[in-house]
Design brief:
By secondary structure, the chain is mainly alpha-helical. The protein has helices at 6-19, 30-76, 79-84, 94-103, 105-139, 141-155, 159-170, 174-198, 202-210, 215-252, 258-267, 271-299. The chain has 12 helices and no strands.
Length: 308
């Protein structure tokens, strides 16, 4: 019995297909049409998502800005003076503070740069020391636990107690305030970085060991990478702590800086000038924080917290 040839098979198939109703036959353009319809339905949803994101982004900007404008307006019309029974010399009006900033702009700008330099240098040194302590604590838990305890104890010491000691050790120049900021920023970095390096997924560790990775490579490619979000959290905490440490340190032993000018302004009852120092210190702290936040977005794009 002869087997059917390929030509015969093709003829049978063509005959079978021709007998089928036209509604059951797939259109040659059906897949393309479906893709176009899917794209058409996706486009409005994407537009809605982008619109929602823009609205959320606008809310993040306009809500605090509107709240700030409302707060300043209530302050200007003396609402807070009536609530707390304050006089204008106790709480100057925003217009008086703005006039003081304008009159003393060059002095305030110079002192803001001096205080910001103390805060940045102290935070960098303190964060570096804290990260090194976290590395030691992770590599040698037996010895590292004691170092973390000492750092936490140092952080519990008030700045007003550290200022005279640092002034005695480093003199009355900028070094003493940098030392104060260094001491106040070590603990946050040490504890956060240690948490990041010690809370690695055990499955990831097993994978590195299966690749015969030594301890150095595990630290470099796994532990340090995993600790980056914790490190940037500590840096953002330290931006505010460093400004506080620098300004409070200038209260005691300094011949320039916002803390020095603020202290002297209060002593001679120049309250608008004192509040000008507070305003510029707040602006400098916000800019410092935003710079660190921007660095975080650039350095850890892969982290889920940066995908929203």
């Amino acid at each position: 019995m002869n087997k059917p040839s390929s030509v015969q098979n093709k003829k049978v198939a063509a005959t079978y297909i021709s007998e089928l109703p036209s509604s059951t036959l797939p259109s040659p353009h059906s897949s393309l049409t479906e893709q176009q319809q899917a794209k058409g339905t996706d486009q409005p949803s994407r537009k809605r998502q982008s619109k929602n994101k823009s609205l959320l982004g606008g809310g993040k900007l306009w809500l605090p800005l509107g709240s700030g404008i409302l707060f300043v307006a209530l302050w200007q019309i003396e609402v807070f003076h009536k609530i707390f029974d304050l006089k204008k010399y106790q709480l100057p009006l925003p217009s008086a503070i703005a006039s003081s900033i304008q009159e003393n702009w060059s002095l305030l700008l110079s002192y803001t740069g001096y205080t910001l330099a103390e805060a940045v240098l102290g935070m960098v040194i303190g964060s570096l020391f804290g990260f090194i302590i976290a590395l030691i604590a992770t590599a040698s838990p037996r010895w590292g636990a004691g170092s973390l305890t000492l750092v936490a104890a140092l952080n519990a010491v008030p700045i007003v107690a550290l200022a005279p000691i640092m002034n005695l050790w480093f003199g009355d120049g900028i070094g003493s305030r940098i030392a104060i900021v260094t001491a106040t920023t070590m603990a946050a970095m040490a504890l956060n970085a240690y948490k990041g390096m010690s809370s690695v997924d055990p499955l990831a560790l097993d994978l590195m060991h299966s690749y015969a990775a030594n301890k150095g490579k595990v630290f470099r490619y796994l532990r340090m990478q995993h600790s980056l979000p914790y490190v940037f959290t500590a840096l953002k905490i330290n931006t505010t702590a460093s400004m506080i440490g620098a300004i409070v340190g200038e209260f005691f032993f300094s011949s320039q800086g916002l803390g020095y000018l603020l202290s002297n302004s209060i002593k001679i009852a120049k309250m608008p000038l004192g509040w000008s120092c507070i305003v510029l210190a707040a602006i400098a702290g916000i800019i410092f924080y935003m710079v660190v936040e921007r660095l975080e977005k650039v350095c850890i794009r892969w982290h889920p917290s940066q995908r929203t």
